[in-house]
Every structure is written in C-alpha cells, then in structure tokens.
Amino acid sequence: MNIKRRRDEGKISCAPVYMFVLLSILSLLVIQCAVPPCPVYQEDGQVYGKIEGQWGGRWWNYYQRGFSYAQGGFWDHAASDLKEAVKQRPNDQRRARTYGLHILDDYFPHRELGIVYYSQKRFKDAIEELETSLEQFESAKAKYFLNQARQGFLNEAGLDQQPPRLYISFPKSGFFTGLSKITLRGEATDDQYVSSVSVAGKEIPIELAEPGILFHKDVILKRGENTICVEAVDLVQRKTRQEITLWCDQEAPLIYIDRIEEDPSLDGYAIEGYISDLAGVSGFRLNGRFIELQGEKDGIFSAFIHAHEPDQTVVFEAEDRLGNRTTGEIRISEAIGKTENDSACLPMLAFSGTRLAGMLSKEDAGSPSVKEDKGSAPVIRIKDILDSMTVDWDECFIEGEVRDAEGVSVIKVNGFPLITRTARLVFFNFLVPLDPGDNLITIHTENISGVAVTKELLIKRKLRPVHEIGSRWHIALLPFKYRGDRDELKDFIYESLIEKFVDQGRFRIVAREKIDSLMNKKKGIEDDPIETGRLVSAEGVVAGSAYFFDGHLELIARVIDTETTVVLGSEEVFGPVNSLRDVNALAEGLSVKFKQVFPLVEGRVISEDSDTLQIDIGTKDHIVPYMKVLYFREGEPVTFSSSGKALEKRLIILGEGRISKAYESYSDSIALSKKDGYRIDLGDFVITK
Predict the structure, then answer these.
(1) Which of 72, 169, 431, 513 has the fewest CB atoms within 10 Å distance of its CB?
(2) 428 contacts: CB under 8 Å, gap ≥ 6
(3) pLDDT above 60: residue 375
C-alpha cells in the first residue's frame, strides 16, 4: 500500500517535468518560426522565404530569409525579417563571421531594407536606411538605389525646381593652347542633386548624386577651332548645357616675303612682307632687329637691311604667344629677280619654322635654288627621319621640304592640308602623335599640273622597358561566382571582364585558356583563388562574384597578392542590365576602377635608411602597402649618327621592390631583387608594377 502510494506520487511528481520539456519544445518552435508567421512561397519554380540549413533565429537567418522574401517581392515579410536582423546586428559589412569559421559574404540589412522601402514607394524611409548603409560600408548597390529613392521622393514632393548650374574654371572660352590634350575642370551644382556630368559627349562616372560635384576630364584637341560641350543633369532629368570654344595652335608663325628691293643710295635692301599666326605673333626679328607689325596679332611689315653684297643673307625669327617659333634665312642673291622697272624683288616667299610650312607662293616666281624641270614631279625631302625607324618618342616631328618648278599646290601629312596657296618651294613641319607599335606617316604632294607624289614613313614606337605590358603586375582574372536567373550571362560576364581588363592595359593578364586548363585538371580549385593564382604563376588574382536578379547586375571583385595573401583592394559596380551592352559597360566600369586605384606612377628614390628605400610617391598617388615597384635608371641615349638627335633612351632596370609603408607624399620600399653588378642609388627612378 505504501509502495503503491509512493509509485503514484512518483508519477504525479514527474508530470511537471514532462510539461516543462513539452512547453520548451513548443516555445523553441515558435521562436524559430518567429512572429509574424513565416510562410514559404513558390512561384515560377522559385522558392522564397526558405534558407539553407536549419533555422536558429540568429541575425544571419533573418537576413537570408528577408533577402529571399525580397527577391520574390514579398515586401512585408522581407521588411519584418530585415528589421529583426538589424536589431541583432546593426552594421552593414562584407564578410561577416557567423559562427566558427563560417563567413557570410555580404551582410547589408540596412541596404536591403532600404531597397524594400523603395519598392513600396516609402521613399523617405528608404533614403534613411540607404544613407545609414553607406555610412557603415560603401557599396555601389546602395548608391544606385539611394539615387532612385531620392529621385522618387523629389518627383513625389515636387521639390526640384531649378536645372543644374555649370561653372567651367578652366579653360575659358577663347583660350589658345599649343597642347593636343588639355584637362577641362569645373563644378556642377543643383538645388537638389547633380546625377551626371558629360564633357565632349563622354560621361564622367558619378555613382552617387550630390548637390555639388567638382569634375575634370581630359579632352583631345584637333588643330584649329574646338567647340566643347559640357552637360549636367540632375536627378529629375533637368539639363544644363554650356559650350566653350578654344583654339589649338601647334603651328609657328607663317612669314611671307613679298618684296626685296635694292636701294643703292642707302647701301642696302628694303624688305616687305606679311606675317600671320592663329594665336598671334609676339615677336618678329630680321637680322636680330625687332620689326613692328601693322596689326595687333599679325599684318604687313617693312624694314631696311644694310647689306653690301648680294651674297649676304637675311636671318629672320618669329615667335607666337604660345612659344612656337619660325627661324630661317634668305640668301639675297637667290631671292632677287628683275622686274620691268629693273627693281630687285622677291615675289611672295614664305618660310616655316618649328611648327608649320613656308612657301614660295607666286606661280611666275623663279628661284635659282629650284632647279627641277617644268613638268617633273614634286620632290619631297625629309630631315632626320628614315623611311623605316624605331624610336621611343610620344610624337614625331616631321621637318622637310617640297620643290617643284611649276609650283606645289598641295601638301598633306596624314590627310591634313598644310598649304592654301601655290608655292615652288615649301619648307614644312608637322607634329604627329605616335601610338605604340607601327605608325604609318603619309606625306602627299601635288603640283599645279596634278602630278602627285606620295612618300610613306614607317615609324615604330618602342615602349620603354618599364612601360611595356611585360613589366606590369601579372594577375589571373578568375571566373566570378555567379548567382542569378540567367545562366547564359555567366560566361559572357567573364569574357567581358577579361576583354575590358586587357583593354585597360594596366596589368599583364594570364590567358584564359591557361586558367580553364588548370580548372579542368583540378576540380574544386576555383574555391582557392590564391592557390589558383600560384599555379598559373600569377603575382596576384582578381576574384569576385556576379549577382544578377530582377534586371540588375552587381559585380564585386577583390585583388589579392598571391605571395603575401594580402587583399590589396576591392571594387564593385551595380546597375540595370537591359542588353549585353549594359554588361559590357559594367565590366568596363569595374576595370576602370581598378586602373584608378592601381595607377601607373613614376617617382624617384629620395633617401636610403638601412635596407629601406624611400620614394617620393605616396597615398596621394594611390600607393598602398604591398604594392610592387620597379627601380630603374636612364643609360646613354641612342642617337642619329648625323644630327645627334636622340632616337630613344636606354633604360637599365635595377631591380624589383615592395612597398612596406605608405605616407601621403612618400613611401618606404624594400628591394626584393637587384640586377647583378648594380646598386640602387639616390635619384634613380621607380615605377609601380
């Protein structure tokens, strides 16, 4: 009886324990499902609201599920989960550690919540969340949707009333330059936000619209008049355009000698002529004496030259206000001809200097120095330039002359006309920019009878060894991890990235075939980018991810040094994709970003401290620790045997180094290797690899 009672008591005493366990399990299930309910949706074969692995009610669970809901457009569920993720872990970041060694590549609850609010047209809430995200961690995706949210809010509230304002600080309209490229600088402002600025039809990349944007853009100029259009657009698509006109004058003053007349009573010769220049003449001298012109910039001149013998020469020099200079001389005995009144005269001679042609420009004028028979073809003579030669010049200065007894009527260099009137003797000069590799320069001339002669010069521009692509940092561009609903984009994105990185010419890229061959041989190697880079002998790798959803593509990439495993930098782009052209544009944008953060910069060794070499380039030049550099110095130049003009400068590569510390205006570097028999001295050059 007592035993039974004790057993019954035991049964009764166990009931609360069982109840506690049962309630705990139920509570856990409720917590795991969370409130409000957590349904799973399926549409068009896609599942939304389901995460990989087990639900644990942790911040990464809420983030992943909220992100999944957002992909399907289930905005209320998405907002609820993302807000809970923010409560548990409030900061947006990349590569967030979850538990153990597990890493979540992207954790951006504020950004994704802002996108949800934007999709619900809750623009003010969206702006707040997206701004918070950017304060915590910059991302191209947050910038894109912040622009969209601000645009939606401005259109809804009608706040943007004025178009943007443009101020061009340099150059001003009417500016003259002798350069073929200038940097246009200015500022665009708006009562709300400037979203884009374009110069000469080329848009300046602006990821995030701002009330005021300082901008600069290199502009290539053609000879003569250039009209450059600058346009600014605000977020509600109001536009402002401004045009400036400037002049590119790479030509020296043109001098015409109209008449040389002997004056025996004064023991000399009177000279009359005309001088002109696009930019304006700043000085003109005959035999060292300054001669005034009748016009402000150009015009008629007259002077008297004391000369006892006809064999004497008249030396002239003219300079324009840009520094282009024409120099030469006239032998009086060759210039004099007899007119009907027996006066000695020289009809319309003109001479060229450093930049443009001069011409003997009257069809009936003779010159003892022009001896070709009438009806013969024009004769072209070029100074210092061979028919085929190799140089390391950025540009080639063509100096020469064309002679023809009938009169030269046409001279063109690479299709550009140099003369506007007939001449029997023409001295011409022309500046031709050279591209790396072969450059064909064509000089075409015709006389007044239409007899034509064409001369071709093949100039090969050889890059200096430190500027060759073979001297650049050797990187492997690995296939990006792809997520998205258009599988056909995966290969196209990779091909486009390789093409754009090669086009930038900043890095030496490992051939795709070599990477594909390695990955076919070693399955799973793509999960270890550093090992992949080492196996293809790359100094660095570019690894990343591509995510395409709902018509938008996000590309995220990082550069890793394979020797040190240090991440040297990361960049990303985001934008809508309506065609493959948009994919190309985003790939180009990513390659441009990497070129900007890893620029090709030259400097010098300024001091030495033990094994550390200090160089005069730093963080202001985008120098960061672990970047590689090359040390070099200039050797004896290769020159023309006749004139001594330099063809190229020989370079000696002294060794390779690595940046150890970077400061604003200088850096510390350590030499990793040195050329046998050489040491690196103060004043030697350095260039980023």
Answers:
(1) 513
(2) 352, 356, 357, 358, 398, 399, 400, 401, 402, 411, 413, 418, 419
(3) no
CA 57, 59, 60, 64 dihedral sign is positive
Cut 0.85: pTM above it:
no
Strands 474-477 and 540-549: parallel
- Cα separation, 262 vs 408, whole angstroms: 28
- 431-484 tens-digit pLDDT: 888 999 999 999 999 998 999 999 999 999 988 888 888 899 999 999 999 988
Distance of CA 125 to the CA centre of its chain: 37
Q: What is the DSSP string of 8-63?
A: HHHHHHHHHHHHHHHHHHHHHHHHHH-SS----EEETTEEES--SS-----HHHHH
Place of tokens 């050489």: 678
SS3 654: strand
Query: Could you tell me if 177 and 251 are in contact, meaning their C-beta atoms sit under 8 angstroms apart?
Result: no
Distance CA 78, CA 508 (A): 44
Distance CA 281, CA 322 (A): 9
What CA–CA distance (Å, rounded) separates 240 from 678?
Answer: 59
Q: List, in order, residues 6 or more apart from 10 with CB less than 8 Å away.
A: none
Q: Transcribe 77-130 into DSSP letters.
A: HHHHHHHHHHHH----EEEEE-STT-EEEEE-HHHHHHHHHHHTT-HHHHHHHH
Q: What is the mean predicted confidence (pLDDT) over 113-118?
A: 97
Residue position matching structure tokens 């708006």: 190
